[in-house]
């Protein structure tokens, strides 16, 4: 039977075991300015007491169902059928690991193959990978692939309307690659002008990146921007932060883009607390061998029966560091499965219906905001939008805080993304928002702005 020792005796015995004479010696490698010192922890509690404490804390939360939420800016709340979560919570999906052994992984491999198929159908591209972390890392992978395909071009041109978080991750990855990023700002309509874009995309540019719908919610002129990139010999990259937009907006694959990538969180993955997300990446068959991450292919076995395998890469490929096509090579299998289930349930018509409902709700809100007066006004009233738009206000944080007191999450303030953006807030609408939700928001803006 173990004897439980007093605290000081425990500490002394542990120090002797690790060969230190004092706690200070144990932590001498940690700079003094970053040490927290002695922690003022409360006395130990029983399991039941701890459980009651956490329930009390949980009771202070506001359930999403109690709010009218118009949050967006890259994370969107859509309706997820109950059957999706029921299937996703099956034990075999929770415990599934990377399917390197096809003989025991056919179910997982088939699900991933179907995910790839859906992504190709949504993007108009020929091949898609087995998913990535999120939209930001998907954009990074697209740029890095372009740099591999066109290695002697040290510049990347990026639309200024790209999501700031995507841009921040891109900055982090491009610096060690000696890639210079050139930004083309948005015009007064909230989109990138093709003529201005053409001045920046020269013969030293390996990739041109544009997001549509962009960070401000405005739909870009994808055909014109693709033509600019192609004429300069650069890879054209279409980034998508709201995947349901592909239900009614033609994807980059239709306009000759080399890569269509972005975020698929909108299909079956809750907003939660900012993650996990689901990056998707689709490209042309000609670039397949430079595709980042994993790729599942369909084949037949020795008996002629259909089967699925990881193809064009081995397990070792993902640990070859500098020689690997990607070091962001995760397969977000559970998240990809969630999207696959939801897309299977919706079908083509369902995805289009979701997109049409989201767009119609946003247009209703835009019309209402447009009549509120100069204190609250649309940033780009003439710019075509999908389901999100930028509202200008001198104190967006204060206004949003006042609306939150009335259980209205009115949008995402641009101040969160740094001082470079116009002061205001992004309002996003989906099929989840009712007409009553919209009227509550408009009434609150009318009274509180």
Task: Provide a brief overview of the structure.
This protein is an alpha/beta fold.
Number of strands: 15
DSSP helix count? Answer: 13
CATH superfamily of the largest domain: Type I PLP-dependent aspartate aminotransferase-like (Major domain)
Q: Describe the biggest sheet? A: 7 strands, mixed
Mean pLDDT figure: 92
Question: Helical proportion?
Answer: 25-40%
Q: Radius of gyration, Cα only, in angstroms?
A: 25 Å
Low-confidence stretches: 1-5
What portion of the residues fall into strands of 2 or more residues? 5-15%
Largest sheet, order of strands side by side? 2-8-7-6-5-3-4
CATH structural class of the largest domain: Alpha Beta
| Count of spatially separate domains | 2
Q: Architecture of the largest domain in CATH?
A: 3-Layer(aba) Sandwich
Q: What can you tell me about this protein's structure?
A:
- There is one protein chain.
- By secondary structure, the chain is α/β, with parallel strands linked by helices.
- It folds into two domains: 64-80 and 347-448, Aspartate Aminotransferase, domain 1 (Alpha-Beta Complex); 82-341, Type I PLP-dependent aspartate aminotransferase-like (Major domain) (Aspartate Aminotransferase, domain 2, 3-Layer(aba) Sandwich).
- The protein is 36% helix and 14% strand.
- The chain is built from 13 helices and 15 strands.
- The protein has helices spanning 7-18, 23-26, 47-58, 82-88, 91-94, 106-123, 135-149, 164-174, 194-200, 222-231, 333-369, 396-404, 435-448, and strands spanning 68-69, 127-128, 155-159, 180-184, 205-211, 235-240, 259-263, 279-283, 296-300, 306-310, 377-378, 388-392, 408-409, 412-413, 424-428.
- It has a seven-stranded mixed sheet, sandwiched between helices. Strands 11-12-15-14 form a four-stranded antiparallel sheet, with helices on one face. Strands 1-13 form a two-stranded parallel ribbon.
- Helix 8 (164-174) links the parallel strand 3 and strand 4.
- Helix 9 packs parallel to helix 10 (222-231).
- The longest helix has 37 residues, at 333-369.
- The termini are far apart.
- Mean pLDDT is 92; it is low at 1-5.
């Amino acid at each position: 039977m173990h004897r439980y020792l007093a605290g000081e005796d425990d500490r002394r015995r542990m120090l002797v075991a690790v060969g230190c004479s004092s706690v200070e010696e144990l932590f001498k490698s940690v700079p003094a300015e970053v040490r927290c010192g002695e922690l003022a922890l409360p006395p130990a509690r029983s399991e039941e007491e701890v459980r009651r404490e956490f329930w009390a804390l949980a009771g202070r939360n506001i359930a999403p169902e109690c709010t009218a939420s118009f949050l967006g800016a890259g994370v969107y709340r859509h309706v997820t059928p109950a059957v999706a979560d029921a299937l996703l919570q099956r034990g075999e999906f929770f415990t599934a690991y990377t399917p390197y052994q096809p003989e025991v992984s056919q179910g997982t491999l088939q699900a991933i193959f179907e995910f790839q198929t859906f992504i190709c159908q949504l993007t108009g591209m020929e091949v898609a990978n087995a998913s990535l972390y999120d939209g930001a890392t998907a954009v990074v992978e697209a740029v890095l692939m372009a740099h591999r395909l066109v290695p002697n071009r040290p510049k990347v041109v990026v639309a200024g309307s790209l999501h700031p978080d995507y841009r921040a991750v891109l900055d982090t990855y491009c610096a060690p690659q000696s890639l210079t990023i050139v930004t083309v700002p948005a015009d007064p309509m909230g989109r990138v002008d093709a003529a201005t874009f053409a001045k920046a995309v020269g013969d030293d540019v390996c990739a041109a990146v544009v997001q549509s719908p962009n960070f401000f919610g405005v739909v870009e002129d994808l055909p014109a921007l693709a033509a600019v990139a192609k004429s300069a010999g650069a890879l054209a990259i279409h980034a998508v932060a709201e995947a349901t937009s592909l239900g009614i907006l033609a994807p980059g694959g239709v306009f000759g883009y080399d890569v269509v990538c972005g975020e698929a969180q909108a299909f079956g993955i809750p907003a939660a607390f900012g993650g996990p997300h689901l990056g998707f990446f689709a490209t042309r068959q000609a670039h397949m061998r430079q595709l980042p991450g994993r790729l599942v292919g369909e084949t037949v076995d020795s008996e002629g029966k259909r089967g699925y395998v990881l193809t064009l890469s081995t397990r070792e490929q993902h640990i070859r560091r500098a020689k690997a096509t990607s070091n962001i090579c995760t397969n977000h299998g559970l998240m990809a499965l969630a999207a696959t289930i939801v897309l299977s349930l919706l079908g083509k018509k369902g995805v289009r219906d979701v997109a049409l409902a989201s767009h119609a709700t946003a247009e209703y809100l835009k019309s209402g905001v447009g009549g509120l007066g100069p204190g609250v006004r649309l940033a780009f009233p003439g710019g075509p939008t999908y389901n999100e738009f930028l509202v200008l206000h001198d104190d967006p944080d204060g206004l949003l805080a006042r609306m939150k007191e009335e259980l209205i999450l009115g949008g995402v303030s641009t101040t969160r993304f740094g001082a470079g953006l116009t002061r205001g807030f992004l309002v996003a609408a989906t099929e989840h928002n009712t007409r009553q939700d919209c009227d509550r928001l408009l009434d609150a803006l009318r009274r509180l702005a």
